[in-house]
Amino acid sequence: MSQQPTTPRLRPLPMLGVVVLAVLMLVVWSVVTDSAHRSRSRTPVELPTAEAPPDPGVEPPTIRLLPSDAAVRSPDNRPQQQLAGWAASMSEELDIPRPALEAYGYAASALEVTRPKCGLSWSVLAGVAAVESRHGRHGGAELDRTGRTSEPIRGLPLDGRDGVMLIRDTDNGKLDGDLVFDRAVGPFQFIPTTWKEWGTDADGDGVADPDDIDDAAMAAGHYLCASGGDLRDADRFWEALLDYNASRSYGQDVLDHADYYGRKSRRLSARR
């Protein structure tokens, strides 16, 4: 009589082996899921989560302030170009157009004289502009040597839908081109009513223009200083950012960019 093949019996694993196997499986699962999470949340510059106030970065050199009655008609006479060398040394590696970096440095330096208790750094202005418009490059726009955008940068209509504010037209479309609702304008995304209060002619060309990053950076600086006071204080810093845009995630994004620019500028300076 032939014997039927028997099914081999599995020997039970020792308890220690079971524990080791379970630990290995947990480690593999953790690595895989963490990798997947990081691949989804990665930002272009790998920004950390920074704490306020951000690193102010390498300070721009002392500048000569533009007299209030000056008229600078030539692009080559922009007062911001006092900082051309400072900006050129960092522009490419920070991925900030040189006219934009000159504008941030000039605004911060000017405010250090006119609002010495504010403590606003160029890196904060750079953080705001990075989030608002990629330094005037939103939608494929570029900055010319005068600091103006090649194409108008306009926000969505503030029509009250999809979580945006409802602001009906206040300027007859003069700034934003919209006769029905207001829109945010320029590299720092000012709404017309705010620009009417804070608009500044920072480059002396005779016009306060929100599409000119020189004017917009100075106006944003005045607005932040007036809103927060001493921006070297963490609570005041947050108060100013939330007044600029009432979103905690927006504020954190600005803070992370500002801290990144400040720290990287210091590393660049240390190499030289």
TrEMBL record:
<dbReference type="Pfam" id="PF13406">
    <property type="entry name" value="SLT_2"/>
</dbReference>
<feature type="region of interest" description="Disordered">
    <location>
        <begin position="38"/>
        <end position="64"/>
    </location>
</feature>
<dbReference type="GO" id="GO:0008933">
    <property type="term" value="F:peptidoglycan lytic transglycosylase activity"/>
</dbReference>
<feature type="domain" description="Transglycosylase SLT">
    <location>
        <begin position="184"/>
        <end position="228"/>
    </location>
</feature>
<dbReference type="InterPro" id="IPR031304">
    <property type="entry name" value="SLT_2"/>
</dbReference>
<keyword id="KW-0472">Membrane</keyword>
<keyword id="KW-0812">Transmembrane</keyword>
<protein>
    <submittedName>
        <fullName>Membrane-bound lytic murein transglycosylase B</fullName>
    </submittedName>
</protein>
<dbReference type="InterPro" id="IPR023346">
    <property type="entry name" value="Lysozyme-like_dom_sf"/>
</dbReference>
<keyword id="KW-1133">Transmembrane helix</keyword>
<dbReference type="GO" id="GO:0009253">
    <property type="term" value="P:peptidoglycan catabolic process"/>
</dbReference>
<feature type="transmembrane region" description="Helical">
    <location>
        <begin position="12"/>
        <end position="32"/>
    </location>
</feature>
<dbReference type="InterPro" id="IPR043426">
    <property type="entry name" value="MltB-like"/>
</dbReference>
